[in-house]
Design brief:
The chain is of the alpha/beta class. It folds into two domains: 189 residues, Periplasmic binding protein-like II (D-Maltodextrin-Binding Protein, domain 2, 3-Layer(aba) Sandwich), CATH 3.40.190.10; 201 residues, Periplasmic binding protein-like II (D-Maltodextrin-Binding Protein, domain 2). Helices cover 49% and strands 16% of the residues. The protein has 19 helices and twelve strands. The strands form two sheets. Strands 1, 2, 3, 6, 7, 8, 9, 10, 11 and 12 form a ten-stranded mixed β-sheet that branches. The chain has a two-stranded antiparallel ribbon with strand order 4-5. Strand 1, helix 2 and strand 2 form a beta-alpha-beta unit. Helix 2 runs antiparallel to helix 14 and helix 9 crosses helix 10.
Length: 422
């Protein structure tokens, strides 16, 4: 009788298990939403890294989605924030960071994570970490970080009688080389393809800084767009385009197209564009630091930084686990090899794969050599609006030629002062 009763109980338990009885609880992985910017080679690599991370562990699932430029991605975050549906992570530029600072409790300070031994914060290049630190809070992790790099067509230099092993080192040499290339081509060549929308401000930073000017005063946080150095720099850019007519100012993507097609001899662009340019060019590409202006040699730091947005302790920890993976030694070396963006860690430069890559592709090493001359822009909550103001100045003075460069910057200064005061 007991044996029969036991058999019945076993059958009842099995049936309950099969048909909806209580099951052992299984922990679901934590979902992390990640908005990334920029497509092309970078976007492909981001998607690969996300897929590899999701495959290698079962505690976190990262859902990555592409949202256009850095600014468009930042705007998407703000729009979703209004609906309480913001992501855990977003890839933005330093210029986008200030718009998040006034939202109380939104931004996660990564200082709470970076001291863990697994991360090794001392391995991160100090200048890059400082660029992502705002009022003592480390809120923007350098990821696909870049500086500007001077590219030139070595074959074209040789064709027009310029030394392909000695690119222009000063603005005077830069202007002369642009004129020689333009004259030689009978209108078929541009000496220099300057980039404009949507990154006019990034080009102007280089020119302004090289002449001793700036967009913002670093100590007072006030606009200095019409400082003597800024005006001198803006007039120099206008001279290249409209006086000498040796150069052209076009949207960023078009400047890459002109150079990659062999129609422009010189280009200033992101180190992150190196991979794309190497893939499309059928000529030898030379790279060098930006030509020195009247005051100094300088390059502007840019590229993408990861920001974390608060979702509670458990989800923040999950998001951080992915950030740590994205910027580990192996992946930051891979970022440089596959895209041209700079490795953010000292240890990456010591890896065998990166050493081999630099030996085979010396153009990629030029960005690292130019890092001592790199600086990050000053930030302000009105910086995005100031970038729009500078874009209008470029349109009015250089593209439309409705006003002089000085007049355009005087107007920009007044508008920027109003923007900062609001």
């Amino acid at each position: 009788m007991k044996r029969a009763l036991m058999c019945v109980m076993v059958l009842v338990f099995c049936a309950a298990s099969l048909f909806g009885g209580a099951q052992p609880e299984v922990d679901e992985p934590v979902a992390v939403d990640f908005y990334y910017a920029l497509g092309g080679v970078l976007g492909e690599l981001v998607e690969e890294l996300v897929a590899e991370y999701n495959e290698m562990q079962d505690e976190v699932v990262v859902n990555a989605s592409f949202h256009g430029t850095y600014a468009e991605t930042a705007n998407k975050v703000m729009a979703d924030l209004a609906g309480r549906n913001h992501p855990h992570l977003a890839m933005v530029s330093l210029g986008n960071v200030p718009q998040f600072l006034d939202v109380e409790g939104l931004v996660v300070d990564m200082n709470q994570f970076v001291d863990e031994p697994e991360f090794d914060v001392d391995d991160v290049i100090p200048a890059l970490r400082e660029a992502g630190t705002f009022d003592g809070r480390f809120i923007a992790m350098p990821t696909n970080t870049s500086t500007q790099l001077f590219y030139y067509n070595k074959d074209m230099f040789e064709e027009v009688g310029l030394d392909p092993d000695n690119p222009p080192a000063t603005w005077e040499e830069f202007r002369d080389a642009a004129q020689i290339i333009s004259d030689h081509g009978d209108g078929d060549y541009y000496g220099f393809a300057a980039f404009g929308t949507p990154f006019e401000h990034w080009l102007l930073e280089y020119f302004f800084w090289a002449a001793g000017g700036d967009i913002l005063d670093g100590t007072q946080g006030q606009p200095v767009i019409d400082s003597p150095g800024s005006i001198e720099a803006f007039e120099f850019l206008n001279t290249l385009v409209n006086v000498d007519e040796s150069s052209v100012l076009v949207p960023y993507g078009d400047s890459l197209d002109l150079f990659g097609a062999g129609q422009a001899g010189m280009l200033i662009a992101s180190t992150g564009s190196l991979g794309e340019l190497r893939a499309r060019a059928d000529f030898e590409i030379g790279t060098a630091p930006n030509p020195a202006g009247p005051e100094r040699a300088v390059t502007s730091m840019g590229g993408g930084f990861l920001m974390m947005f608060d979702h509670g302790e458990a989800e923040n920890q999950a998001a951080w686990d992915f950030v740590r993976y994205m910027v580990n030694t192996e992946n930051t070396a891979r970022m440089n090899i596959e895209t041209g963006y700079m490795p953010i860690r000292f240890s990456a430069a010591e890896t065998e794969q990166l050493q081999e890559f630099w030996e085979q592709t010396p153009q990629a090493r030029a960005a690292i050599d130019g890092l001592p001359g790199a600086r990050a822009r000053y930030t302000h909550t009105a910086l995005t609006e100031m970038h729009d103001i500078l874009a209008r100045a470029v349109d009015n003075a250089i593209l439309e030629q409705n006003v002089t460069p000085e007049q355009a910057l005087r107007t920009a200064q007044r508008e920027a002062v109003e923007a900062v005061g609001r």
